[in-house]
């Protein structure tokens, strides 16, 4: 049973970029970069992207995706 | 009892000889660690470094909490009582805590029962299980409506999925860390608490309730007796828990100042051991010890239930289960906190103190002590 597929909880939770002032990468404790298109939070120094699932950032180390190459042009 | 122990050891050695090391890690661990257990598949998925020393299977714990999100009812008396006791400590503090981190365990109860205590304006709730976090979302929104009715500032709720062992919060970002029964499944407890201290602003409050070593002692005994009887060996069925004496050390080791620890014991009565296990499951408190035996035979389980009833059962047919909760309070260090003076900074010798203190005859007339302040009240 996939956790997100079977869930019938309230929807409409949107990610608020204001949260970024509190949260950091759990591994490096460095600030995260929000990518609106892919709905991911990038930890640039180690090249890991954490997903935002329906507005909730998933910052457990195991849910992170290793990004092959980080394009510096994307960073704000 | 003695022959049982010998039988158990015999079974262990025989098993080891027949099957050899049970897991790929065995070459580095002593063989007695592996009696009647297999390393779980979930732990092997763990790719972050060498987590061989872990006691708990965090992947399994995540799954158990996912399931608990579906199993849990609306009101759990045990969790409500513990959370109420924990939050009561917030009212004892004179200052307010605008930003709070709510860490694991019964975090949805904390959100629901906060009722404006501690002046919390922003609540960051974090749990390892995504389903658990989502389950608490409706609560969070309804909570806001209630607060609006009561003419309080609505609490801004932020939800996160994260691991307590890898706290994704920036340095000095929150005023208070609240954890209601959320820290007893953490492998590296001193590390997790140090991370909490780093996440706290100076003079921030760390407030945690944690299950202590006396918890479920009846079940522990019943399982051991039943396993020895039916399987001739034991495997850990109840997780190792922190002792009361460890709690103070943990707070100090995490660098938290002014530590306070107190203990409460709750006895919950159930019709039978099966209801107890159902309750534990609904709280997500299933066995997640990595060295556990993944197979529990029906026969052994029923034997454990029978042993439980015969050893601890009451006349009215119910069985008691003990839950020992350790409440820990600590403050992140700040310069304005009270602290002992530096060693050697005293200006008055204890010897001189003797002359100032009232002697036996002058005790009758305290106002005549030379050098002391005149006592205005008496």
UniProtKB/TrEMBL annotation, chain A:
It comes from the Eukaryota. Coiled coil: none annotated. Gene3D superfamilies: 2.20.25.10. InterPro entries: Trm112-like. Pfam families: Trm112p. Belongs to the PREY family. This is Protein preY, mitochondrial. It comes from Riccia sorocarpa.
Automatic annotation (TrEMBL), chain B:
GO terms for molecular function: methyltransferase activity. Pfam families: Methyltransf_11. One of its GO terms (biological process) is methylation. Residues 109-207 form the Methyltransferase type domain. The keyword Methyltransferase applies. Residues 354-378 are annotated as: Disordered. Signal peptide: none annotated. The keyword tRNA processing does not apply. Keywords: Methyltransferase, Transferase. This is Methyltransferase type 11 domain-containing protein.
């Amino acid at each position: 049973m996939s956790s997100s597929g079977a869930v019938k909880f309230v929807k409409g939770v949107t990610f608020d970029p204001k949260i970024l002032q509190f949260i950091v990468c759990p591994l490096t404790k460095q600030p995260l970069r929000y990518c609106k298109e892919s709905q991911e939070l990038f930890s640039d120094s180690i090249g890991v992207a954490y997903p935002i699932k329906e507005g909730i950032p998933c910052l457990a180390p195991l849910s992170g995706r290793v990004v092959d190459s980080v394009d510096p042009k994307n960073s704000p | 009892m003695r022959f049982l122990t010998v039988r158990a050891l015999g079974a262990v050695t025989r098993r080891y000889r027949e099957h050899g090391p049970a897991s790929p890690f065995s070459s580095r661990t002593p063989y007695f660690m592996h009696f009647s257990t297999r390393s779980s598949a979930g732990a092997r998925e763990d790719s972050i470094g060498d987590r061989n020393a872990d006691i708990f299977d965090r992947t399994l714990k995540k799954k158990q909490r996912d399931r608990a999100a579906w199993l849990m009812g609306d009101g759990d008396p045990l969790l409500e009582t513990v959370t109420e006791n924990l939050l009561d400590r917030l009212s004892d503090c004179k200052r307010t805590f605008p930003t709070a981190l709510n860490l694991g365990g019964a975090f949805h109860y904390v959100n629901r029962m906060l009722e404006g205590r501690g002046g919390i304006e922003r609540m960051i709730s974090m749990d390892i299980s995504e389903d658990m976090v989502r389950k608490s979302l409706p609560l969070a929104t309804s909570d806001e409506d209630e607060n609006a009715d009561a003419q309080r500032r609505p609490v801004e709720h932020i939800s996160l999925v994260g691991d307590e062992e890898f706290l994704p919060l920036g340095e000095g970002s929150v005023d208070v860390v609240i954890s209601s029964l959320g820290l007893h499944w953490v492998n590296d407890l001193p590390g997790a608490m140090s991370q909490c201290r780093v996440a706290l602003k100076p003079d921030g409050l760390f407030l945690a309730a944690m299950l202590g070593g006396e918890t479920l002692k009846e079940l522990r005994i019943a399982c051991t007796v039943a396993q020895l009887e039916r399987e001739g060996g034991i495997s850990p069925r109840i997780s190792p828990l922190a002792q009361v004496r460890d709690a103070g050390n943990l707070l100090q080791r995490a660098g938290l100042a002014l530590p306070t620890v107190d203990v409460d014991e709750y006895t919950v009565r159930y019709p039978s051991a099966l209801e107890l296990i159902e309750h534990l499951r609904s709280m997500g408190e299933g066995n997640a010890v990595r060295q556990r035996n993944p197979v529990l035979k029906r026969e052994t389980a029923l034997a454990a239930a029978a042993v439980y009833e015969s050893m601890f059962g009451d006349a009215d047919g119910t069985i008691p289960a003990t839950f020992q909760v350790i409440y820990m309070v600590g403050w992140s260090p700040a310069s304005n906190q009270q602290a002992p003076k530096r060693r050697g900074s005293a200006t008055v010798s204890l010897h001189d103190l003797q002359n100032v203190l009232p002697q036996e005859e002058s005790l009758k007339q305290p106002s005549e002590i030379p050098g002391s302040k005149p006592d205005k009240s008496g």
